[in-house]
Structures are given as C-alpha cells and as structure tokens.
C-alpha cells in the first residue's frame, strides 16, 4: 500500500512552484491546469467518470454575524460577488475561493470519504476496502466505491482493517522493527562470550535446580509463543497486546508518516473508537478558506474549471 501514489502525485507534492503557464495560449493554459489537477484529484478515475460527477455549481456560504449586520447593511458581503471588494472598503472581508471547490463532488465518493476520515492510508486503499466488503453505509454492506454520500449518511469500516491501514507495518515474522533490532543485537555475540556461557551453564547443571512454586509454573504456561495455540498475551499495556497473527506490528503503533492533507474535514463527524463517521453536509467555501484539500491555487483551479465547462 505504500506504493499507492503515482508518479504524477509525487511530482505534484514535491514541486515548489505552480505549473508554468507563461507564453502559452489560453487553450494550452486550460489543458495544462486540467492535466495537473486531475493527476492529483481522483487520478485513478477515468475522464468519463469525472465528467459524470462534474457540477457547474460551486457551493459557498457567507457567515452572517448578528453584530456585523447591526453595524452594517450587509451590502459589503455581496460586493464583487465574493471577490474581496469589501476589503477595500475597510470592512475586512476576504475573498471567497470559489474556484477551489472544483472537485467538491469527489469528496462525496465513499472511498474518498473513508480516506478523509483517516480510515485508510490512501484513496486506493479505501477503494480496496469498499470493493472487498469491509465498509458499510447506514448499516448495509456497500461494495461500490463510487457511491455518492448524501447529508446524514453514516458509514463504517471494519476496525481490523483500520488498524492495518493506519498501523506500522510488520517487520520479519511477527516482530516489530524495535523487537527485531534487539533480537539481532543479542544474536551477534563473540565466540569467547559463547564459550563462557556454555561453561557457566555446564557448572550450573551440576547443581540441584531450585524448586518451582505453583504460581511460577502457571505463569510459565501462560507465556505466549508464535507456535502456541493462543496468539495473544499481555505485554505492557493490557489493551495493546502482542498478537503474532495480525498483519501489522504489535503492540500497535501508528505509522511513521501520514498522507498529505491528513486531517478531519468539517463536513465529517468521525469516531475512531468505533470506526464510524457521518457525512454531515457537502463541502463549501467560506471567506478566505475552502473545505476541499488541494495543493493548487485558485488560478489553476479556475483554468481547469473553464476547461471542463467547455468540454460539457
């Protein structure tokens, strides 16, 4: 699952400047912006699938505060249709980034919503969970990753799969990276130390063994080994035991890295204790901010939006 990002996505995330649009015609600028944005937003979807989801309407809201309405008539809110004209009048209303809402229908997809809720490490992993039947919508199994969520829909992911998606990968046979490093360091001993230990063990074998109490015998039988029938035992935190049968490292710990834009958006209500989430509403744009995560600016989004308007 670590190789789920394509070369285009890695290029978009590591570059430090926007796409070069100078000395290009308007058609070339629109095509370049479309190619750049589509390489990040839903790059595993075909052009026909995105054209089906594309909407001309861009959702936005303007906060109407009672104190501000009492002082002003509210005309500055509509000045310039959200272009920030009211800021020139000393009111301090930032511009509304409408164009950043271009890919807001993509956030309604079930696989993207599972990724935004941090139930998976990437959209492709979330898509795999949906196809394999590990995701439910309103209590019913949903195997279609292109299912469009409606406000109020509740979706959930199998807790075991969420632990696998967000947990550190297993190293070796049931051991984490720290455990394997400790075992390797213990195994690399000098021959002199090995001979001394053999001599010490031979001398100790001549002596009579100490008697074993019933409590110690019961504790020794309760210890877990990879070949035993019981695969869990308490080590440290009793709620986070060692389990060699799990596909992730145990005791469980989060991955060393998180995907880009890994945060809980405002339009989702997530409970990680039960791995449930509710799609509250559609993402909207507000003065100075947008709820659709994207590494591209409003200018590039506007050119891409004009391209899709033409193609429709």
TrEMBL record:
Residues 181-209 have a biased composition (Acidic residues). Residues 108-168 form the RNA-binding S4 domain. SUPFAM superfamilies: Alpha-L RNA-binding motif. SMART domains: S4. Pfam families: S4 (PF01479). PROSITE patterns: RIBOSOMAL_S4 (PS00632), S4 (PS50889). One of its GO terms (cellular component) is mitochondrial small ribosomal subunit. Keywords: Ribonucleoprotein, Ribosomal protein, RNA-binding, rRNA-binding. One of its GO terms (biological process) is ribosomal small subunit biogenesis. One of its GO terms (molecular function) is rRNA binding. Gene3D superfamilies: RNA-binding S4 domain. InterPro entries: Ribosomal_uS4, Ribosomal_uS4_CS, S4_RNA-bd, S4_RNA-bd_sf. Residues 169-249 are annotated as: Disordered. Residues 217-231 have a biased composition (Low complexity). This is Alpha-L RNA-binding motif-containing protein. It comes from Morchella conica CCBAS932. The lineage of its organism: Eukaryota, Fungi, Dikarya, Ascomycota, Pezizomycotina.
